[in-house]
Amino acid sequence: MKKFSIQLLAVLFVFSILQGSAIAAEKYGKPDKVTKWVFQPCFDSSDAGWGSGLVPWIKAVEEATEGTVKIKLEPAGAITSGSEAFGATAAGMIDGYAGWASVYGGDMPEGMLAFGMAMGVKTHNDAWEAMWGNPKYRIGDIIQKAANDRNLQWVGWTSQGPNAAFSKVPIRKMADFKGLKMRAGGPQALFHKAMGGAPVSMGGGDIYTAIKLGTIDGTYWDTGGIDDMAFQEVIKYAIMPGWCQVQHQETYINLDKWKALNQWQRDRINGIFKSTYFETSKLHLDGVEEALEILKKAGGEVIQLPEDEVAKIRAKAIAEVWPQIAAKSKGSAEGVALWKKYLEDIGDLKK
After folding, report:
1. Could you state, in order of their start, the residue ranges of all structural domains in the chain?
2. pLDDT tens-digit profile of 291-316?
3. Residue 153: its H or E element
4. Which residue, of 78, 134, 229, 274, is most buried by count of CB atoms within 10 Å of its CB?
5. What is the DSSP letter of 300?
6. Prediction pTM value
7. What share of the chain is helix, strand, coil (3-state, %, to 5)?
């Protein structure tokens, strides 16, 4: 028995040496093989997040990895439903996903921290500083951990500009939200309810018809994407600055697929996270004025809420909506505290 144990230890020792040699021999750099991924976001090509968010990111990934990572992009419903795409990516059914608030916080509450806080920061530059740029905050680390815990890697982010209310009736002060039936999901719904409205949950493809038939009074949507959805045909008012001035979209990869890449490929993809954030955020921002002009040409009106009303809405959102997000998980609570600290430090929130 003793002899057998010694022989077993010898075999394991030799195996560990060989394994260590193989790892050491792995060359850092461009691999010989091509990795092919299939992505399906929770939206289709009609959404602004397709052409101004995900497509530029995919192009950047393929260029950065020198063609060793190829990504096929499919619309929602091609493999699974849009609402199931996040979970399908975690399970490895599809390789990558893009969407909002990690399915509006239902599958990953910490995603709300990346989506954008109600009446939070005013620019995508400030959002970047709090999320990744300033080591004092690094809210992104909280979200990345939550993603990893769900077998995902967070690899892309883009600001879609202001997410505003678009309605058939005018909203000129906070009290005008009361009783309005608006399509709103996750953080939007929390905000709309806090304002006294009645949030209604429905898929993006059903919004146009619901507004036209009078089932709902309007919707919350990224401002630069309202013409993509032809909302100017059924709504009359755009209420600015919006409940979230810099709404964001996130992109995730199945963690097992991410780990299957070599270190060079992972480094190259991580290397374009920041550059694509600012590139795609600008693309979205450029589309905001164009979309609002299309609305005005269709007979609509852009309502700029008075500063005193914005201040009241903001105070109510921070007092009532933010605590609800913080209550959803330990990571969410830590993230909300950091968002508050950041706003205080830049002078946008009184201590």
Report:
1. 36-159+247-285, 163-246+294-345
2. 999 999 999 999 999 999 999 999 99
3. strand 152-159
4. 229
5. -
6. 0.89
7. 55, 15, 30
- In the structure encoding, which two tokens stand for residue 244, read together? 């979230």
Strand pairing category for 69-73 and 163-167: unpaired
pLDDT in tens, 79-111: 999 989 999 999 999 999 999 977 777 889 999
Residue type, 272: I
Q: Using CB atoms within 10 A of its CB, is residue 123 exposed (0-12), middle (13-18) or buried (19+)?
A: middle
Q: How far is Cα 341 from Cα 351, in angstroms, rounded to an integer?
A: 8
Sheet (strand 248-254) strand order: 69-73, 35-39, 96-99, 248-254, 152-159
- Asked if 36-159+247-285 and 163-246+294-345 have one fold, the answer is yes
CB 28 within 8 A of CB 232: no
Whether 216 shows a pLDDT value over 70: the answer reads: yes
In contact, 163 and 116? CB cutoff 8 Å = yes
CATH homologous superfamily, domain 163-246+294-345? Bacterial extracellular solute-binding protein, family 7 (3.40.190.170)
CATH of 36-159+247-285, one of 3.40.1170.60, 3.40.50.300, 3.40.190.170, 3.40.30.10: 3.40.190.170
